[in-house]
Amino acid sequence: MSDEQIRQEPLLWTGDHYNEGIGRDDIFDKLREECGVFGVFNLPEASNLSYYGLHALQHRGEESAGICTVDTKNGNKFAYHRGMGLVKEVFNKDNLDILAGDRSIGHVRYSTAGESKLANAQPLIFRYRDGDLAVATNGNIVNAPEIRKELEMSGSIFQTSSDTEVIAHLIARSSKDFETAAKEALQRIVGGFAFLIMTNDKLLVASDPHGLRPLVMGRIGDGYVFSSESCAFETIGAVYERDVQPGELLILDADGMRETRYAEVERRATCAMEYIYFARPDSDINGINIHMARKRMGRQLASESFVDADIVTGVPDSSISAAIGYAEQTGIPYELGLIKNKYTGRTFIQPSQELREKGVKMKLSAVRKVVEGKRVVMIDDSIVRGTTSLRIVNLLREAGATEVHVRITSPPFKNPCYYGIDTPDRKELIASYRTVEEIRKQINADSLSFLSDQGFVDSVGGNDGAYNRGMCLACFDNDYPTPVNEESDKSCSC
Amino acid sequence: MSDEQIRQEPLLWTGDHYNEGIGRDDIFDKLREECGVFGVFNLPEASNLSYYGLHALQHRGEESAGICTVDTKNGNKFAYHRGMGLVKEVFNKDNLDILAGDRSIGHVRYSTAGESKLANAQPLIFRYRDGDLAVATNGNIVNAPEIRKELEMSGSIFQTSSDTEVIAHLIARSSKDFETAAKEALQRIVGGFAFLIMTNDKLLVASDPHGLRPLVMGRIGDGYVFSSESCAFETIGAVYERDVQPGELLILDADGMRETRYAEVERRATCAMEYIYFARPDSDINGINIHMARKRMGRQLASESFVDADIVTGVPDSSISAAIGYAEQTGIPYELGLIKNKYTGRTFIQPSQELREKGVKMKLSAVRKVVEGKRVVMIDDSIVRGTTSLRIVNLLREAGATEVHVRITSPPFKNPCYYGIDTPDRKELIASYRTVEEIRKQINADSLSFLSDQGFVDSVGGNDGAYNRGMCLACFDNDYPTPVNEESDKSCSC
Amino acid sequence: MSDEQIRQEPLLWTGDHYNEGIGRDDIFDKLREECGVFGVFNLPEASNLSYYGLHALQHRGEESAGICTVDTKNGNKFAYHRGMGLVKEVFNKDNLDILAGDRSIGHVRYSTAGESKLANAQPLIFRYRDGDLAVATNGNIVNAPEIRKELEMSGSIFQTSSDTEVIAHLIARSSKDFETAAKEALQRIVGGFAFLIMTNDKLLVASDPHGLRPLVMGRIGDGYVFSSESCAFETIGAVYERDVQPGELLILDADGMRETRYAEVERRATCAMEYIYFARPDSDINGINIHMARKRMGRQLASESFVDADIVTGVPDSSISAAIGYAEQTGIPYELGLIKNKYTGRTFIQPSQELREKGVKMKLSAVRKVVEGKRVVMIDDSIVRGTTSLRIVNLLREAGATEVHVRITSPPFKNPCYYGIDTPDRKELIASYRTVEEIRKQINADSLSFLSDQGFVDSVGGNDGAYNRGMCLACFDNDYPTPVNEESDKSCSC
Amino acid sequence: MSDEQIRQEPLLWTGDHYNEGIGRDDIFDKLREECGVFGVFNLPEASNLSYYGLHALQHRGEESAGICTVDTKNGNKFAYHRGMGLVKEVFNKDNLDILAGDRSIGHVRYSTAGESKLANAQPLIFRYRDGDLAVATNGNIVNAPEIRKELEMSGSIFQTSSDTEVIAHLIARSSKDFETAAKEALQRIVGGFAFLIMTNDKLLVASDPHGLRPLVMGRIGDGYVFSSESCAFETIGAVYERDVQPGELLILDADGMRETRYAEVERRATCAMEYIYFARPDSDINGINIHMARKRMGRQLASESFVDADIVTGVPDSSISAAIGYAEQTGIPYELGLIKNKYTGRTFIQPSQELREKGVKMKLSAVRKVVEGKRVVMIDDSIVRGTTSLRIVNLLREAGATEVHVRITSPPFKNPCYYGIDTPDRKELIASYRTVEEIRKQINADSLSFLSDQGFVDSVGGNDGAYNRGMCLACFDNDYPTPVNEESDKSCSC
């Protein structure tokens, strides 16, 4: 894949911004969300709905955005627009107007490889035997490199480095009818993914056989909307209908929607990190509200590892709910001990090394008046490499905290993800090679506790009878729902 | 002529954005912050420090930004750059590099008249007898129109419609030495303001005689920084020193800083709305932390007007602290019942009337899973016209709230501000012509309570012996610290 | 193909500009040049040389530009950048720096279908079995639609609507070695084209079997450069070596250049319109300088159709040389009777219909002082639909010309081009359905003459023994060098 | 305050471009034009007319453009927009629509100091006692520094470094009525200038007492247009009426136009370089067409200094007319021996020193096929420092010219201009310290001749009885029409 990193992409290249953007989070070693998809079927102004829907999914991908529409009132014509930047930057009234139609698929993404300049903005658009084909995906195809190799050997040429492209080639190569071809293509691929596939005639919606990546269905009158997260439904005035099921393939065309399957559910395995970190607190996954799940994680954490302190604070934004839960459970007041500048974004200039050493902060500050002279419980969602945690603990200490007790709302993150989350190699994951006490020392905390596996599972809740309540906990317990090996491609297909 | 060659002209006008931006908040009738100023003295990379400092003050003004520098290492040359947009949009590495120097004044602003296209971006830059002159201000000069008229009659010409310009003319017109001229000019003007004035040789820092607008001083080694709010100090690694006092005039030049006065303190009157709504929660004003003051307001509100309910929620972002205080006091759990999309900004396309009617939300949504079937206490900071409150109550009801009890963390807002806050005319302020019960009906709430004047004053605290603890409460109690009348110019000078 | 016209491309979309640009020439019905290609082999700073080379070819395509490089000093890595706009708009120091390498291919193009928004900017970039593949072309593949259909039926998917893409697929599909595959692919396609094909290892340069489109080779020391026109060589300091021959295939790699053929020359047929209109006057094609050929056309025209007049004027820019030739031959003084505003470009706002009726001109004006009261000979290169000629004759009459005699430096343009020039359908070509006298009336001229076929051929000169001296005259005499039919695809592949 | 709300701020700063643009002509030491002005009175869509008018004057200033309008249908409101870049870059449909009104003044300018980043874009806009005031000027005020000093000493503050600003201050400072104030202000200033001054009520048009800078009046129906050059009239469909006379002051308001004088004509002195180099060939100055005057210069030069040669060529664009005149007179054929790339502009990247040494040309190339083996007469308009001439002679020699005979269509340029043309100091003007023979050697020519003073004067023609036919020849004969001294400010006021 390294050959491609130097490829320069041209798509709506917002030159300086793009360059400055690289590494904007590099001093914080957070996991990075992989992508968000949004689909519309049988609704006027589909592109406008997608604009607001994708805007609600913006936290799942800030690097690029794209919308592709089909206009059934006008010969089922395709139109699309993609660009680098936020939804509000990529789209304007002019280009949304051009995107006429009543069906659409849209996408927001991160460039998973931070050092890559390649803009594989989605939806990917192809022209094949039967007309136009667009694909938007969230997740990763574990066996994409093998399939790609095989396709290339038989003469296929690729326009992107995105693994998503293999699904289009598999469909185009098949001599069977489109639905069969799509079904067989889905059966060939292994991984965790949510797919929206659109042709001039049909919209296909599919979730991987374990339901690793979230995908929900909503209704507006006679029309359907599909979204990575339900938070988009409230934004656009849609009514939540149900989660798309593992192995399900929905086919929507002039005859309406048919609910089919391309795979049996083997073992349901929704990504645990969606509950812990990625999803917006106002989203529900499998019927469970994220904010409330996080509050329960905070309460559970308080039960498992109480510590006497003066204040509880959460690392914004993802850990606020859990911190409030912790505070409610313990009676220790929740305070705003850390604050994040909401204006920091892609184009923000990072402080020079010199200024950073002098104390210039980019994005997160401790609130001196709040933490000075206080014993602080600091709630965070996870520890990846440990550098961010150390940094935040030190921010609190520099602002006068007398003790800093770190409480993590998930079990130790030990194993890389192969299903669409951008994680470092195993050897960089601090929990894979350090004990909790060693980590505590390294992040300079007075005490450190992680949530237990069982405590986490219970906090999320849900009525799945399995021990893990239908979640993938591979990053904690190394039990991957599909075959993977250390050499498998981890980079997100989207 | 060579002195001027480094002057940077305006202005990075991001045209389309600006137009689209108008009215981005029009469905929410919030008060609008007036401006923020930031000054640096005797510190290398002054423009970079200003960049991070202004970034921390961004909430005080999102429409334009500007920085002017003096380079004492290079003939005390002036350089400046201003532009429309956020700090991160206006400045880039290239223009910051050009802004060489160890002194600077910077500014962020709102265009107070939403319909105005006029870009009075500050700092304003002038060339007068003694060289270059730059002015950045936060606040309003009540008697600017009269002074301006008088200056124009004697032949002055103005480059902007900004009232701030009068201070420069008053100084230029004086036949006295610069410091005397500045002092006399400050004595001529009436209002609420924080001024940073810079010439090739000197930096002047002044606060109005009542200290209406906040202004704090910090230190980095031998250098000084000045800021509308202390939150910027934590960001840039500065140590808070003290608040600039009412009527104070600080003069900084090659001889260091001299602390002088141009007016006696008559009555201290810090703007109450800074505590309630404008200032960032991690700022301290007069030594009082904003987050903690807001939590106390929430607690006080709970004491004054308890209501039995299932959850407490705050209108983001300003009312979160108070909502947590209310929850802590009452034991009713704080929940995330309302969520704001943090990506919505100036360039965001508002939904068409049609889409809005269909339920498309621009920025704020209720979280169905959290509020459905619940009796909700909704904490907000103020009610201006009442339209926003109605809208939010309805969002909660549509999401299934069975009862909505509105609690406001300030007394009723009845009187317009003449000191730099963009308020509607008195006749549009709902509290000026409606009883609390009438307002309750109009905003469709099950119950409504405002914080009492005394409760508010006590919540803020502080050790000022006055009944109002040194705050201006004119918007609540009509007791203005300076002469004003209904015809006085309300539009902010900055 | 119409399905695709609504497809929206995203490449460096300079939104407003692009829209305004459409139809910028719509009131002038000139033929539109199709594209220009530029290649560099074994020279440091290949991308910079391409920048200046493409700049010299800018007249061949103003809509988009692109450069792809291979860096043999760094693992033969690919890098590329493409964008909408002029060369100077698409490239800057930053992106040229990123385009490291000693080999490159570059491209400038028109969007041939004026109404199309599709940005098939070249070089096209693919990833296939053996690595990266880039293609830049000038011309048209007459049988591309059939080949494309065939490829799609066997499962190929296309990323663009450009016919150029078929060459990449033909190569990728072949099981033979790359050179054989490329040779066989070239043998499959029919049309007029100049190809630059680059892989990580090799650069291929090919001209169609009739040499319809110009392509020249030059040297700088040990390196090679290839260009659509020789004018680029003077610009970059290269020495002209020779024209690439019809049916020739040059292969350049680590072993240097091998000169091979993939087709025998059947009949040489260089595009006549290159001499008449497209090529820059300082270029030489087949050893013949364009300016001098045009002067000879003017002289020949004077011999064939002298008319007594006061001044000779040429329609800028293409007809100036011929007008001077005409003036020299007749002794009638050449004057600047028409002037073109050189600043008019893509982003220029066309006058409204109302302003146009009031006399506002966009681009071309008559010079009243020069033409008033004069009998004018107006030299132009061709008449396509006739609307432009009518317009210019009227400009001269409105400026006071008493007589306007139109002299055209080419035979009547009667037949559409299938080899890369954007021509209307036959039924829109005025000369295909009108006599010379009818055209004269329609364009409101006092007299009208075209250059004879033989006169044109003699003017160009050259030592090819054929009656047409090795030119394609199909647009005049309907004698196409390859099989074509009225349904063949005329739209340029590049 | 509402009057001002429509004012548009500056604007559309094409930052990077501006920086790259600096020095784009630095290898060619041509004189630089100073500015162009365009005014409209009593015509609907005044801003659109200005757009096309300024576009026609673009050659007089490529760095910035601005338009200010007054709408007499809407309370005589002011609106303006200015920006860096070409007219087509600064203005778009949106901002032209905002510039409503039936009166306007517009401006295009060079930044005369190439190293200056200061954007004194005009029209300058002021607000003074009686309302709004806008000023656009072409030329230079010799005594501006003294007046400015005096104004600053009495308390005026300046917003720009432009000398033009003094006229506004002089008017604002006067206690007399506006017309008297303007007249007295014009009487105070010394120099060469064309002024357009607009208030809410009036439009003033003035030329300096010697008519140094050109300014013409035209009509469209009941409306008036004013322009630096008449070429703009043909573009917008206006009829030329007359040249504005030296010392004339036209006052246009609701009562129509009054023709007054503020100064007697002492000695008419139109800038000779307008005829020779600056004006567009399709313009007429004092009734003399520029193209025809230049042809006569070429013919006269042929009479004065014939040389036997094979071809005549002109340095594009300004010397083409003269070269054709020379060719007609001598019978030596005119050929395209030098060609300029018309796409080179502000944003063009100059070749690195290394590439330049290798022969990469930026803008101008010799046409090898045309000049090879030929004795060439090269016609140019002037020699400033001599470096450009040397460069062009060498281009021709490198392309194979056997002899290069340089013929200059003006007398030797020996003395700096104080009236708005950007000239180097006297000591850098080659003709001020070298004999013709020395210059010949320095520019490597086989022969060199300048046009004689009398020959030049006769070529221009005109019916003024004076020896110089009413031209300023100071740059040739050191006879300045106003007092100046070596220390006078040469930098253009506009």
Automatic annotation (TrEMBL), chains A, B, C, D:
NAD in keyword set: no
Required co-factor(s) are: [4Fe-4S] cluster; Mg(2+)
Residues of the Glutamine amidotransferase type-2 domain: 35-255
Annotated residues that bind [4Fe-4S] cluster are located at C271, C417, C472, C475
- Biochemical pathway: Purine metabolism; IMP biosynthesis via de novo pathway; N(1)-(5-phospho-D-ribosyl)glycinamide from 5-phospho-alpha-D-ribose 1-diphosphate: step 1/2
Q: How is the cofactor bound?
A: Binds 1 [4Fe-4S] cluster per subunit.
Q: Which SUPFAM superfamilies match?
A: N-terminal nucleophile aminohydrolases (Ntn hydrolases), PRTase-like
GO molecular function ontology, one term from the record:
amidophosphoribosyltransferase activity
Give me the reactions it catalyses.
Answer: 5-phospho-beta-D-ribosylamine + L-glutamate + diphosphate = 5-phospho-alpha-D-ribose 1-diphosphate + L-glutamine + H2O
GO terms in the biological process aspect are: 'de novo' IMP biosynthetic process; purine nucleobase biosynthetic process
Recorded hits in InterPro entries, A to Z, give:
GATase_2_dom, Ntn_hydrolases_N, PRTase-like, PRTase_dom, PurF, PurF_N
Class of the enzyme per the UniProt entry, highest EC level? transferase
Task: Tell me which UniProt keywords the record has, alphabetically.
Answer: 4Fe-4S, Glutamine amidotransferase, Glycosyltransferase, Iron, Iron-sulfur, Magnesium, Metal-binding, Purine biosynthesis, Transferase
The similarity annotation says: In the C-terminal section; belongs to the purine/pyrimidine phosphoribosyltransferase family.
Q: What is this protein called?
A: Amidophosphoribosyltransferase
Question: What taxonomic classification does the UniProt entry list for its organism?
Answer: Bacteria, Bacillati, Bacillota, Bacilli, Bacillales
What gene makes this protein?
purF
